[in-house]
């Protein structure tokens, strides 16, 4: 539905044609085309062609991300790459290592889409305080009394945001996980990227990207300014003036996030060595 989209390529290993036919009936500007299987991946990416726990997902998604990103490097090396597959903390380092090996790595053009955490936080905080959701932006620390929380409320909300994926899985009684909210979050971030590409000067979102916000972590999720080349600026000021609770949570996070990053890097290195042997 976005007026910023002129061409939409759908790719999967099977069953793409029906979805493409369905979408092509919408009277929107986007021209929809389908691509199925390994042999058509290059055509999908080429601009010259027409139109469980998260960690349990690692073994499934690591190979998919590695394969897709390698194709992006070969056929669309200047593309903005949005990684939303879990565990994102490991998948983005995998993508970065593959792009480096291909000589196509530009840290401004690689993002982990963590927008679902942001929209959940905004929704839960707005509901708790009875605020208009459009006025709530959790990464900012509003000074309004209506947005103030006790320490207990902060811990409760943090736990709910962190575990909300499980909340959906349990509500669906094992019949699936978060799909609609994930799609909404992906659409929101993609729309922001497109506005940045279109030259808008006020496009800000949170993303998991290469940064020096936390020196010992090469990737971290924080607010970024998006522009024609992807990330124009990483805004790390939100990590200044942390509360005691936030500082403790950050310190507890660091070794876990570092392990996830190292796991992704090691995966690519191990597979490269295996291919050479």
TrEMBL record:
<keyword id="KW-0520">NAD</keyword>
<dbReference type="InterPro" id="IPR022383">
    <property type="entry name" value="Lactate/malate_DH_C"/>
</dbReference>
<dbReference type="InterPro" id="IPR036291">
    <property type="entry name" value="NAD(P)-bd_dom_sf"/>
</dbReference>
<dbReference type="InterPro" id="IPR001236">
    <property type="entry name" value="Lactate/malate_DH_N"/>
</dbReference>
<keyword id="KW-0816">Tricarboxylic acid cycle</keyword>
<dbReference type="GO" id="GO:0005739">
    <property type="term" value="C:mitochondrion"/>
</dbReference>
<protein>
    <recommendedName>
        <fullName>Malate dehydrogenase</fullName>
        <ecNumber>1.1.1.37</ecNumber>
    </recommendedName>
</protein>
<feature type="domain" description="Lactate/malate dehydrogenase N-terminal">
    <location>
        <begin position="2"/>
        <end position="112"/>
    </location>
</feature>
<dbReference type="GO" id="GO:0006099">
    <property type="term" value="P:tricarboxylic acid cycle"/>
</dbReference>
<comment type="similarity">
    <text>Belongs to the LDH/MDH superfamily. MDH type 1 family.</text>
</comment>
<dbReference type="GO" id="GO:0006108">
    <property type="term" value="P:malate metabolic process"/>
</dbReference>
<dbReference type="InterPro" id="IPR001252">
    <property type="entry name" value="Malate_DH_AS"/>
</dbReference>
<feature type="domain" description="Lactate/malate dehydrogenase C-terminal">
    <location>
        <begin position="134"/>
        <end position="266"/>
    </location>
</feature>
<dbReference type="GO" id="GO:0030060">
    <property type="term" value="F:L-malate dehydrogenase (NAD+) activity"/>
</dbReference>
<dbReference type="Pfam" id="PF02866">
    <property type="entry name" value="Ldh_1_C"/>
</dbReference>
<dbReference type="InterPro" id="IPR015955">
    <property type="entry name" value="Lactate_DH/Glyco_Ohase_4_C"/>
</dbReference>
<dbReference type="Pfam" id="PF00056">
    <property type="entry name" value="Ldh_1_N"/>
</dbReference>
<comment type="subunit">
    <text>Homodimer.</text>
</comment>
<keyword id="KW-0560">Oxidoreductase</keyword>
């Amino acid at each position: 539905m976005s007026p910023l989209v002129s061409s939409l390529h759908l790719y999967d290993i099977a069953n793409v044609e029906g979805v493409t036919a369905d979408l092509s009936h919408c009277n929107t500007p986007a021209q929809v085309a389908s691509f199925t299987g390994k042999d058509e991946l290059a055509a999908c990416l080429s601009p010259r062609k027409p139109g469980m726990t998260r960690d349990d997902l690692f073994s499934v998604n690591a190979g998919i991300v590695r394969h897709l990103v390698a194709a992006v490097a070969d056929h669309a090396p200047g593309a903005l790459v949005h990684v939303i597959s879990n565990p994102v903390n490991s998948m983005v380092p995998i993508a970065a290592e593959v792009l480096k090996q291909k000589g196509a790595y530009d840290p401004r053009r690689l993002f982990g889409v963590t927008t679902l955490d942001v929209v959940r936080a905004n929704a839960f905080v707005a509901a708790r305080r009875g605020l208009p959701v459009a006025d709530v932006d959790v990464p900012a620390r509003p000074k309004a009394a209506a947005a103030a929380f006790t320490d207990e409320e902060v811990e409760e909300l943090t736990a709910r945001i962190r575990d909300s994926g499980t909340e959906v899985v349990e509500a669906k009684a094992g019949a699936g996980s978060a799909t609609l909210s994930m799609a909404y979050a992906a659409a929101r971030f993609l729309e922001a990227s497109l506005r940045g590409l279109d030259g808008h000067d006020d496009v800000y979102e949170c993303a998991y990207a290469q940064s020096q916000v936390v020196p010992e972590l090469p990737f971290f999720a924080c607010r970024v300014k998006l522009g024609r080349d992807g990330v124009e600026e990483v805004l790390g000021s939100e990590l200044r003036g942390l509360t005691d609770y936030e500082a403790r949570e950050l310190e507890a996070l660091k070794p876990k996030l570092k392990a996830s990053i190292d796991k992704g890097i090691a995966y690519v290195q191990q597979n490269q060595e295996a291919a050479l042997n």
